[in-house]
Amino acid sequence: MIRFQEKPLHWVGSSKKDLLAFPGDVVDDFGYALNVVQHGATPPSAKAWREKVLTTRCVMREKKLETVDPGSGDVLVDLGFADAGDRKLRAQLSMRLNELIADRSLTQARAAELFGISQPHVSELKNYKLGRFSSERLLHFLTLLDRDVEIVIRPKAKRHAHGMVTVSVA
Predict the structure, then answer these.
(1) 39-74, pLDDT tens digit by residue?
(2) 2-16, 65-79, 147-161: segment of lowest average pLDDT
(3) N or C: which end of the chain has fewer CB within 10 A?
(4) Closest CA to 94 of 58, 129, 119, 56
(5) Which residues make Cβ contacts (< 8 Å) with residue 128, sequence separation at least 6?
(6) Do the Cβ atoms of 100 and 142 come closer than 8 Å?
């Protein structure tokens, strides 16, 4: 069984404050994208940074010290989303859906037909713009891709203050 493992996230300088200053839909998109990265995947919207050396030199010349906030370990909680747990679940489910769509070499048009939604909505799913998708709807899409979904309820882990919802892939 494969379990999505979260990587640590560190907020450097004013990065968190700067992100939160953007409009809500931008923070929403970045939140999902950062959560995907935290789980070891790369969102399609990610772009390689080609000026790494130049940027490093500029920072070194400035000799500016930046504070580093280690964050909570959950970018969606750090960004203050009241429904961070549900957003995290939707991101994990959509990561698996996107893997299955790619594994089957489905076009967006074919996935749309299979799911009973429009192709632009499949594009939103692929790009982790998940506002229109509930967890239940994403679970339904998984079953349409010939996957069984099993929900297991067990006592919480001692290292967690509260119970958690996680996605494991068998």
Answers:
(1) 888 888 777 665 544 444 444 445 566 788 888 888
(2) 2-16
(3) N
(4) 129
(5) 29, 32, 33, 36, 43, 44, 45, 91, 94
(6) yes
pTM value? 0.79
More confident residue, 19 or 167: 19
With 0-12 / 13-18 / 19 or more C-beta atoms within 10 angstroms meaning exposed / middle / buried, residue 36 is: buried
Please say whether the dihedral angle defined by the alpha carbons of residues 72, 74, 75 and 77, taken in this order, is positive or negative. Answer: negative
| Cα dihedral 25→31→33→38 (10° resolution) | 180
| Amino acid sitting at position 169 | V
The single-letter DSSP state of residue 132 is T
Secondary structure in 3-state letters for 2-68: EECCCCCCCEECCHHHHHHCCCHHHHHHHHHHHHHHHCCCCCCCCCCCCCHHHHHHHHHHHCCCCCE
Look at residue 109 in the predicted model and tell me its pLDDT.
98
Query: What is the number of other CB atoms lying within 10 angstroms of the CB of residue 102?
Result: 10
Side chain identity at residue 41, one-letter code: A
